[in-house]
Design goal:
This protein is of the alpha/beta class. The protein has 7 helices and 7 strands. The chain is globular and about 55 Å long. The two termini are about 15 Å apart.
Length: about 220
């Protein structure tokens, strides 16, 4: 949806299983006047275009998530794209930009060091590493979801029996205590599920982000 041409067709890949999801979180600079997500929305409505949001670049997860947030809240913010997460996070901590939708694993060190604040979590459930932080859904946007996810796919026309066998083996691994522990330490929530579950999840992601990309006319030129 973002690229005009690719060397492969993503839709031809066969779903196998989702390994894990990492929530994207709403992060604000430490001195930002809003202390809650509702405060931020009110501030944004009173000051259209004044809030600056960082991203890892045009079409990145942070960019698309901020566009989704604007669509759902009716506020207008100013995009400041960077070349990757690191420079964006540095400027957020320095107060050069106001907010960023960053993945939890990246945002956690600055949050734990009290260099930024996290106002909300983009997943359906609260994150185990920051259980006191509410989700965006809890705070009034029930259809909001933004997570980074990792999955296993197979080449087109892979026999169903093979996909199911890999799915079952992967699900068993994801239930191992040491595997769960390592995932959670990295801010990732072990997922698993059936082949059908993954197909439905991907279809939902395609619809959600496709609508955002089309509405904002976002494209990436290689």
């Amino acid at each position: 949806m973002l690229y005009k041409s690719l060397s492969y067709d993503p839709s031809s890949l066969e779903p196998v299983v989702i390994l894990a999801t990492v929530p994207n979180v709403l992060v604000v600079r430490s001195e930002f006047p809003a202390t809650t997500m509702q405060d931020l929305i009110a501030y944004g409505k009173a000051n259209p275009g004044k809030i600056t949001y960082a991203s890892q670049g045009n079409g990145s997860t942070a960019h698309l998530t901020a566009e989704l947030f604007q669509n759902m809240t009716g506020i207008k913010m100013t995009h400041v794209p960077y070349k990757g997460s690191a420079p964006a996070e540095v400027d957020l901590m320095a107060g050069v930009v106001d907010i960023m939708f960053d993945n939890l694993a990246s945002a956690l060190p600055a949050y734990n060091g009290k260099k930024v604040r996290i106002l909300a979590v983009g997943s359906q459930q609260r994150a185990a590493l920051i259980p006191d932080i509410p989700t965006v859904r809890e705070l009034g946007l029930p259809d909001f979801q933004s997570v980074t996810w990792f999955a296993v796919v197979a080449p087109a026309k892979t026999p169903t029996a093979i996909s199911r066998r890999i799915n079952e083996a992967t699900n068993a691994i994801l239930q191992m205590a040491d595997v769960k522990k390592e995932f959670l330490l990295q801010g990732a929530q072990p997922h698993g599920g059936t082949v059908t579950d993954m197909a439905q999840f991907v279809a939902g992601e395609k619809k959600r982000w496709g609508e955002v990309i089309q509405a904002a006319h976002i494209s990436i030129v290689e």
